[in-house]
Amino acid sequence: MSATDRFPRLIRHFGRSWVVFGLLVLSASVLPGCERKGGPGPAEQPEGRVRVGILPEGETRPNVIMILVDALRADRLGAYGHRGGLTPTMDAMAASGVTFDYCVAAAPWTLPSVATLMTSYQAGVHKATSYRVVEDMESGKRAYQSVLSDQFDTLAEVLQANGYQTVGFCAAKFLRTQYGFAQGFDHYDTSFAANTVRGEVVNAALFKWLDEQRDASKPLFLYLHYMDVHGPYDAAPQFMDPLMEQVEQNPDKRLLEAREFRAINAYLRKPPRETSDPGRFERLKGYREYWVARYEAGVREMDFYLTELLRGLHERGLWKPAYVILLADHGEALCEHGLWDHGYSQYQTDLRVPLVLRWPQVLPAGRRVRRLASLIDLMPTLLEQLRLPAGESLQGKSLVDHISGTLPNEPLARFAEATKAGPRQYALFADNLKLIATELPPRQLPGGTTSEATVRRQLYNLATDPGEQFDLARQSPQELAMLTKLFTHIVQTNMATKPGLVVRREVVDTSTIRQLESLGYVGGAEEDYEDANGVPPESQPASVPAGQADPVEDEPNVDNP
Questions:
Q1: Is 0.70 surpassed by the pTM of this model?
Q2: Domain architecture of the chain: domains with CATH
């Protein structure tokens, strides 16, 4: 029986799971260039290695501080290789914790991505996906209504039920209390929510609450959602000016084509609110580097306010022992593929996000995890680490074995969906391979006839083509067909899935593992993660700037913006 013939039987056998990447490599041919170098991939289960990152028996549960930076691309952090020195505080956090090199969001925009983060269900299940509905509520065109159903047990609800004081300060307007995102929070403040709100506002609200309402008898779950990086790229001049000077002096800056400039969303295509040079906008707005610099100024500003946050938590005795999670809900397109903003595609610009976990004395400092991960995995990870029941119905999978290097021979797949506008799009990740599927509606044809709805499929090898420039769909039809069947199965499963319905998990059998090994999809355990002193040269991040304080051991350097 051929590999293709086996596929339907394997789908029936594995049932409702998307943890079935082993199916892809049962084909007779191998996708050109699918070597593991430079990309995420499976690893053998090492012998003698213990699981780490779990609360020691008998220990008090820690305060948990989740710091979400809206629209932050992973590749703008020094910890992920950026050389611009934008993020010294974030880089110091990464150096003192566990960094996931290949983490993806479950959706390319805030509403569905955070709903997945907080429930560990895919967007197709929780269905908090409509940009139009929330935008209409924001503009007053329709009455407020919840978009995140209360039939889901959110992360905050689980922690609240287990003795945590749960608090959120969220500057994202699409995550207001009225939309259902306050579920499980003792205090949830979105009174200041706006794209243009700065981190100092979030920090001030937090510090006031900590000083007046904190119940020190309970462990704290703190959710902070910042918007400094998000458009309209309005960082203060102290962060903007140095980057603008570099653009002015750059002899190789690229003039945007007319269509590229027109593609910039109207709310972005404006001068910043504050500027030390009123004429700069007209001089530079036609260059791509100008818009990139404005985005990066927001990253720099965000790092400054994180330093302020760390100092305030340090002064209140809440920083050193805390379990801290640093992440983003999605990335941002900066004219790659001719796109700007986020939410309009499933490319890596929108989906790849940073994920850093820091927990002194429990998580290994400086560890880099190279396995593919998703934000959908964070809730079950945290619950396992805190020794709290996660149940079997969550669609995410704990990352404890990723961190420990004890992950079994179980090739993984990850899924993303729910764009803001235009045709519905999906992304399926399977090791180095990525399928993007776009539903195209019927078209009016000459003669008054109408075409059938179609699906455009793109296939990329992220190991050799991280920028997704070379579509391999035509030259690899068998792999494309198998991924498409798996994608279709996942979409249909999500449509039928309800909260509480158990998601079956399975382990690929031994014969499949041998085939994976022979084709180069399964590597040695040493490739699963790298410690601080063992990061491969090709993925070595920028070092933390000299003199930058480690926020774990020292008070943050608040003088460095």
A1: yes
A2: 3-49+410-521 (3.30.1120.10), 64-359+374-384 (3.40.720.10)
